[in-house]
Amino acid sequence: MTASTHLAVGAAVGVVAQEFLSFGESKPEKLFWAFIGGFVSHLVLDAFTHQEYSFGGAKLGLVLFFEITAMLILLLSPSRSLITNAIIFFGMVGGALPDVIELAHRYVINWPWLDVLGSKIHFCHGLVSFGSMASFQLQFFIALIAVLFVRLRPVL
Questions:
Q1: Residue 9 near residue 74, CB atoms below 8 Å
Q2: Contact residues for 17 (Cβ-Cβ < 8 A; gap 6+)
Q3: For the chain, what is the domain count?
Q4: Which domain range does residue 23 map to?
Q5: What interhelical angle do 27-47 and 82-103 show, nearest 10?
Q6: pTM of the predicted model over 0.85
Q7: Is the CB of residue 155 less than 8 Å from the CB of residue 18?
Q8: One digit per residue, pLDDT tens: the chain, 156 residues?
């Protein structure tokens, strides 16, 4: 899946996770569950067969930079409270972390345990197939829906 999809859906699931918490949960608990929700969303999305980036190196770095910047601009808002933005951000981080681990191993720190960890986290990668892959266009649409959900959602 694209970074945009993982970031936007992670944010949306992090926001939705708040609905299942008891009233009066502490801020660290809210952030923890937003992160966990984002992380789980990554596993669910990656279970479906999907198109991946077909390039690496500096080109991939540039694309990821623009996608991450766009999602930060679209999802975080100065008109929202700090805790709401933090919940959204932690959902984004959870949604991105599994791929960050793999990219860190591939391009930054060649520690074998990072490769093992990345492989274990992605245990369900591509297990579900509906006869075709989730195209980049479908992934963009999913990200767009998630961004709209987060943007239009009343402040928590």
A1: no
A2: 33, 34, 36, 37, 91
A3: 1
A4: 3-152
A5: 40
A6: yes
A7: no
A8: 899 999 999 999 999 999 888 777 788 999 999 999 999 999 999 888 888 888 888 899 999 999 999 999 999 999 999 999 999 999 999 999 998 888 888 888 888 888 888 888 888 887 888 777 778 888 999 999 999 999 998 765
